[in-house]
Structure formats: structure tokens, C-alpha cells
Write a structure and sequence with these properties.
Structural class: alpha/beta
CATH topology of the largest domain: Rossmann fold
Strand order of the largest sheet: 1-11-8-7-5-6
Number of helices: 10
Order of helices and strands: EHEHEHEHHHEHEHEEEEHEH
Number of strands: 11
Strand content: 15-25%
CATH class of the largest domain: Alpha Beta
Largest sheet: 6 strands, parallel
Mean pLDDT: 97
Bound molecules: nicotinamide-adenine-dinucleotide
CATH architecture of the largest domain: 3-Layer(aba) Sandwich
CATH superfamily of the largest domain: NAD(P)-binding Rossmann-like Domain
Low-confidence stretches: none
Distance between the termini: 54 Å
Shape: globular
Length: 287
């Protein structure tokens, strides 16, 4: 059984990106991410610290706008407009879910598509779902794709089963895998015979948000398992897969922690650098 660890993926991505960032800096461009955080949720703060560390380690810039939990729609929209107008900012990370009084649908239409490095906007969803290469996929599904590529796992003709149909993980991941010629089944809470569906996969992706949902009964011999879930249970991190119970049955499996989650900040960095490069290339065309 091969353990598909995220750190080597992140390291390889970051080393490549550091070179790209140096080249951009030689042309006077400093890739910069803006973070907008509403409130102080501990998991947002923890991710934010991870992003800051990753960006700073390679000389990319991050600025954080911290807004109170009670922020008005108008104030939030004004912040987004400022990001849109700021030529030095190449990407935005907005933590979600937003508090209930805020209208996320309006934000999805407001953010400039070219700065949408974590696939918040409707325009970027359209790019991901149509399979063109213009947009930026959400960081977590893209991290799964980076991990599979790093470990040379070819998707062509493979039967992939994804548990979860959210717009943050399950659905966009299905589209990314389809674009690489996998045969994809998406399962959800109303799926009948979930265990049987899972068992017949070559590659099983768990993104249900249920701790240790995937037990030995869900897993076929020699499968590859990617665990996207992340939960704190009795002060210990675990995924949607019962790792101890299934690992020996698989040919490869991601651990939690130390799997997919490790690579998401590297994807955010990659998208921010891509955005800075695209802006530079567009400006060249119009000179
Ligand atoms: P979500 O709650 O929005 O969606 C969960 C999906 O799973 C739903 O479509 C639902 O139909 C399905 N589902 C739930 N319970 C099920 C069950 N018992 N059987 C079959 N299907 C079931 O969650 P999400 O935002 O898509 O996140 C999924 C998981 O990924 C969570 O554990 C979350 O913490 C994790 N996550 C990890 C990262 C990361 O960086 N590693 C990032 C985002 C989300």
C-alpha cells in the first residue's frame, strides 16, 4: 500500500512556483493575494495562517482584510470592489460560509473573474464545468488533481466514485476528472446501495463531511482512496475514511492529516501566480 502524502506534492509545486515568482519580480510584478475574512472562526484563522506561511516562504504577498461578523452587505461589497480595482492584487480568498445576513449570490457576481483564484464566482464555475482552461477550479478539488498527477495516477478510463456533490468539492472534482477521461459517478445522501457503488470504483473519493463514513465494507481490494474529509473528533484529526480499517485493503490511500489538505495552499499560490502572469501577458498584448 502506497501512502499518498500531500507534503511532497506541495514541496514540488512550491519549488516550481518560487522560480516563476522570481521571474515575475524581475519584471516588477509581485504576486499578491487578498484575503477577506468575516468574523474569527478558528478553522478560517488556521487556514489563513497556513496561506500566509506558504506565500511568504516563496516571496509572494498576502494582505488580510478582517471584517466583523456584523458587517453589512454594502461594506463587504465595497471591500470586493476595492480588490477588483487594485492592480497590485491578483487573487482573492473570501472565507465561506458567510454569516446568514449576507447575500453570497451577489458576491458571486461582483468579484472580478480574473481575480477569483478559489472559484467563488458564477463565471469561474462555468469555466470549470465547460472544461475550458480559462478559469480557476476550487483549491481543494484542484489539490486532489495535483496529488494524482504527482503520483502518476492516470485517470483515463478509470471508474471514479465520488461521495459528495457540493459545489466546493464533489461537483467540480467530477468535472476535472471527466476532463481527464475518467468515468465518474457522483454519490450523495439519496444514493441507493452506496457501499456497492463505492466498491466497484477504481478510485474512490470521500468528500461527504462525515467522520470515518468509509469503512471496510465500502472498499474493494486494490482500490485507490482519496480522503478529502477533515474533522476533529475527540481532539484528533480524522477524515471521511476509517484509515486504520481500510488502508491494508487499498493499493494507495491519502492520510488525514497529511494528505489532500496539505496541498490546498500550494494550489492557491499556483492560481495567484497564474493570475499575475495572465495579467502581465494581457498588458503586453495591449501595449
Ligand atoms: P458538504 O457538507 O457541503 O457536502 C457533503 C456532500 O456529501 C453532500 O453533497 C452530501 O449529499 C454528501 N453526503 C453527506 N453525507 C453522506 C452520506 N452519509 N452518504 C452519502 N453522501 C453523503 O461538504 P463539503 O464542503 O463538500 O466538504 C466535504 C468534506 O471535505 C468535509 O469533511 C470538509 O471538511 C472537507 N473539506 C476539506 C478541505 C480540505 O482542504 N481538505 C476543503 C474543503 C472541504
Amino acid at each position: 500500500m502506497l501512502e499518498l502524502r500531500g507534503m511532497p506534492v506541495t514541496k514540488a509545486m512550491t519549488e516550481n512556483l518560487e522560480v516563476e515568482i522570481q521571474k515575475l519580480k524581475e519584471e516588477g510584478i509581485e504576486p499578491k493575494l487578498s484575503i477577506i475574512r468575516v468574523g474569527n472562526r478558528e478553522d478560517d484563522l488556521s487556514y489563513e495562517r497556513g496561506v500566509e506561511k506558504r506565500f511568504k516562504s516563496v516571496g509572494a504577498l498576502v494582505e488580510t482584510r478582517e471584517l466583523p461578523q456584523t458587517v453589512s452587505q454594502e461594506e463587504l461589497e465595497q471591500c470586493i470592489e476595492e480588490v477588483n480595482k487594485d492592480d497590485r492584487v491578483h487573487g482573492l480568498l473570501l472565507f465561506r460560509p458567510l454569516p446568514h445576513h449576507l447575500n453570497e449570490e451577489r458576491i458571486k457576481l461582483l468579484l472580478a473573474e480574473e481575480k477569483d483564484v478559489d472559484c467563488l464566482t458564477t463565471a469561474n464555475d462555468a469555466h470549470v464545468f465547460s472544461g475550458d482552461k480559462k478559469g480557476y477550479a476550487p483549491c481543494t478539488p484542484q489539490a486532489v488533481m495535483e496529488l494524482l498527477e504527482f503520483y502518476n495516477i492516470d485517470l483515463t478510463g478509470k471508474k471514479v466514485v465520488i461521495i459528495g456533490r457540493s459545489m466546493v468539492v464533489g461537483k467540480p472534482l467530477a468535472m476535472l476528472m471527466l476532463a481527464q477521461n475518467a468515468t465518474v459517478t457522483i454519490c450523495h445522501t439519496k444514493t441507493k446501495n452506496l457501499k456497492e457503488e463505492c466498491k466497484r470504483a477504481d478510485i474512490l473519493i470521500a468528500a461527504a463531511g462525515v467522520p470515518k463514513l468509509v469503512t471496510e465494507e465500502y472498499v474493494g481490494e486494490g482500490q485507490i482512496i482519496i480522503d478529502v474529509g477533515i474533522h476533529m473528533v475527540e481532539d484528533k484529526l480524522c477524515g471521511d475514511v476509517d484509515y486504520e480499517a481500510v488502508a491494508e485493503k487499498t493499493s494507495a490511500i491519502t492520510p488525514v492529516p497529511g494528505g489532500v489538505g496539505c496541498a490546498t495552499t500550494a494550489v492557491l499560490l499556483k492560481h495567484t501566480v497564474m493570475s499575475a502572469k495572465r495579467k502581465k501577458d494581457e498588458e503586453k498584448v495591449y501595449i
